[in-house]
Amino acid sequence: MNYKTQMEAAKKGIITEAMKIVSQKEQITEDLILKRVAAGSIAIPSNINHKSLNPEGIGAGLRTKINVNLGISGDCPDYKREFEKVKMSIALKAESIMDLSNYGKTFSFREKLIDYSSAMIGTVPIYDVIGYLEKKLIDISAEDFLKVVELHAKQGVDFMTIHAGINRNTVSKFKESGRLTNIVSRGGSLLFAWMELTGNENPFYEYYDDVLDVFNKYDVTISLGDALRPGSTADSTDCGQITELIELGLLTKRAWASNVQVMVEGPGHMAINEIEANMRLQKRLCHNAPFYVLGPLVTDIAPGYDHITSAIGGAIAASSGADFLCYVTPAEHLRLPDLQDVKDGIIAAKIAAHAADIAKGIPGARDIDDRMSAARQRVDWECMYECALDPEKARNYRESVAVENESTCSMCGKMCAMRTTSAILEGRDLDI
Predict the structure, then answer these.
(1) Which of 337, 360, 383 is the last residue of a domain?
(2) Are 256 and 286 in contact (CB under 8 A)?
(3) Which of 6, 165, 264, 380 shows the smallest number of beta carbons within 10 Å?
(4) For residues 101 and 123, what is the distance between their CA atoms, to the nearest angstrom?
(5) Which of 65-69, 90-94, 317-321, 401-405 has the lowest mean pLDDT?
(6) Average pLDDT across the chain, whole number
(7) Does residue 155 register a pLDDT over 80?
(8) Closest of 152, 150, 126, 153 to residue 140, by C-alpha
(9) CATH number, domain at 284?
(10) 432 occurs within a structural domain
(11) Same-domain pairing of 224 and 85
(12) Residues 142 and 188 in one domain
C-alpha cells in the first residue's frame, strides 16, 4: 500500500476499499467519490486500527449523517449503561458515535467501543487529558495534550475534535466584543482557561503540524472544533464565531496539504433566519470542507424538548449545505441522557437528516417515503410499520386503541379518506 490516508490515495488516483463501500451505499460512482475525497469536499473517517468499521462518507452529494454523543461523567460513572447506549445507537443505524467521557480511566471503555462498533468513532481528547493524567489544569503541558491525541489515534479513533481555532487572536476578539453566554464549548472553555492560566498559546494551534503528523500516521480525520460557537441565539454570527471560522478555514488548507481529511464544526444556537447564510459562509471560508453542526438549536427556551429545537435547525442547516448532524437529546442542558433520551435524540436527528436529503435531491432519498405513501393508500399497516423510522412505536400507537374495522385506525374509523377514495375509484360498495 503506497499511501497512508484516504486523501493521499485519492490524490494519487487510487480507489480504496472504503471508497468502494461508500460508492455502493450512496449510489455515486467511485470516480466521483475519489475526486471529492481528493478535493476535501468528502471525508471518509476510517482509522487504520478500527477493524470493525463499516465506512461512511460525509460531504458533498452524500446522505446527511448523524452522530450520537455518549460517555460517562463524574456524577454518572456507569460504563455498562453507556455501552447499552452504544448498542442502541448502532441498532438505530446511527453512522457515528462520539465518546465524550470526561471522568476516570477511559482507555478500556474506548477499546471495547472501537472493537464493537461498525459506526465511526469520534472523541474530544482534551477531556481525557484531564481525567487520564490526573493533573491540575495549570500543570498540564503542551506535550501532555499531544500525548493523549496520539493515544486515541493509536487505539483506532476515526475522527477527533481538535479546538485549534481558539488562539490568542480569536480570544482577544472574543474578549473585546463580549457575549451573553461567553464560551459554551466544554473543550474550548478548558483551552481558554489553560491559556489564561499559563499565558501560553493554545498547544493545538502552536503545535498543529505535530497534530497533523499523528493524524496522517493513523489516517484520523480532524474535526476542527468551534470553541467559540454561539451558546445562545443572542450570540450567533458574532465576532468571536466568525473570527474563529476564518482561522478554521486556514487550518483546513494546512491539514489537506498534509493529506489529512477535515471536517469543520459549526453552531450551536442560532435563529432560523441566520442558518442558511451561516452554512454558505462556512462552505466559502472553509473551502467546501464537510460541515458538522450541533443542531443548531433555534430557540433557547425549550429544555426537555431540545431534540425538537435541534431537529428544526438541523433540517434547515443540512438542506442548506451541512453534511453531518450531531444529535441533541431531550436532556440537553439538564442532565446526562438516559436510554430513552438517546433514542429520542437519534430519531429526531434522523428525521432532520432525511428531510434535508429529500430537499437536496440525494439519489434514492425519497424512495422510502414513496413506499410509505403507497402503503397508506392501500391501508397496508404492516408495510407502514416496516417503512417507519421507529416501527415499534408506530405499531404500539395504533394498537393501543381497539378499532371496529381492522383496516382503519381509531382516528377516522370507517371515514378513512384512503378507504373512501379507493372504494369510489374502484367502483366498490362504500359502507360508512
Answers:
(1) 360
(2) no
(3) 380
(4) 9
(5) 401-405
(6) 95
(7) yes
(8) 126
(9) 3.20.20.540
(10) no
(11) yes
(12) yes
Looking at residue 96, the DSSP 8-state letter turns out to be: E
Average pLDDT score over residue span 73-100: 93
Of residues 288 and 130, more confidence is placed in: 288
Q: H helices then E strands: how many in the chain?
A: 19, 10
Please tell me the chain's helix, strand, coil percentages from 3-state DSSP, rounded to the nearest 5: 50, 10, 40
Same domain membership, residue 382 and residue 341: no
- Assess whether 243 and 385 both reside in one domain: no
* Residue 397 maps to a domain: yes
Same structural domain for residues 77 and 27? yes
Average pLDDT over residues 351-364: 97
- Last residue of one domain, picked from the residues 306, 330, 360: 360
Same domain for 414 and 312: no
**Which segments within 246-384 are labelled E, that is strand?**
262-266, 291-294, 324-326
Interstrand relation of 58-59 and 65-70 (parallel, antiparallel or unpaired): unpaired
Hey, what's the torsion of the CAs at 363, 365, 371, 374, to 10 degrees? -90
Q: Which three cell numbers stand for residue 299?
A: 430557540
Domain count, the chain: 2
Q: Rounded to the nearest 5°, which phi and psi values hold at 103?
A: -150, 135
Task: Indicate whether 1 pLDDT > 80.
Answer: no
Q: Are residues 328 and 416 in the same domain?
A: no
Model confidence band, residue 55 (pLDDT cutoffs 50, 70, 90): very high
> 253-292 b/e with 16+ CB inside 10 Å = b?
eebbebbbbbbbbbbbbbbeebbeebbebbbebbbbbbbb
Exposure on the CB side of residue 49, measured as CA atoms within 13 A:
19
15-24, 98-107, 111-120, 371-380: which has the minimum mean pLDDT? 98-107
Please give the pLDDT value at position 102: 81
> To which H or E segment does residue 204 belong?
helix 203-206
pLDDT exceeds 90 at position 72: no
Instruction: Please report whether residue 431 resides in a domain.
Output: no
> Is residue 143 scored above 90 in pLDDT?
yes
Report d(CA 381, CA 44) in Å as an integer.
Answer: 38
Whether 27 and 138 map to the same domain: the answer is: yes
Q: Is the pLDDT confidence value at 188 over 80?
A: yes
Residue 404 lies in a domain: yes
Q: What global pTM score does this model have? A: 0.95
pLDDT of amino acid 285: 98
> Domain range for residue 298?
6-360
Residue type, 147: K
Q: What is the pLDDT of residue 407?
A: 79
Residues 6 or more apart whose Cβ sits within 8 Å of residue 33: 15, 19, 22, 23, 26, 42, 57
Between CA 385 and CA 389 the distance in angstroms is: 8
